[in-house]
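User: Teach me something about this protein's shape.
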Amino acid sequence: PLRRQRQMCIRDRNILKDWDRAAVAYYILELVDVFTEPGMSMEDIFEGLLCSLMSLNSDKEPGDAARLFEVKFLMALGLWPGSGEFKLTKGSASTLMRFEKDSWQNSSRIKLTRDVGEEIKKITSGLIKENLDRPLKTAAVFK
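Assistant: First, the predicted structure itself:
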């Protein structure tokens, strides 16, 4: 089934037909590129990358897919301190707790409100910037 899903993702190419989806896809790929090294154990990261690209190929909002990828990616790298470390609104705290505990597939069903998405974006972008020695080229897309 995973191979079939990959083929569907490649065949449909909705990602490349929509600038917002393509921009998020390039952003996710850049994150993987700058934070990983050859030889790293990457099963969780590969699963996240595949699920994110499949989400972008569907009706999922690109920003929602980016936020979920960022949280799960930071978790896989051991850079996520946990949602309890942040002063959050109830909606953001609840969403982040689900991202932390649920699978990619279950988490990807969550629809973020604009406010929740913005609050999570501030947190994830801050953590990403703290752990990089240079700015991301694709980060300007999300300003």
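Now, about its shape. The helical segments are 2-12, 14-17, 19-35, 43-56, 62-77, 90-101, 104-107, 114-130. The chain has a mean pLDDT of 87. If you'd like, I can walk through any region in more detail.
User: That's plenty for now, thanks!
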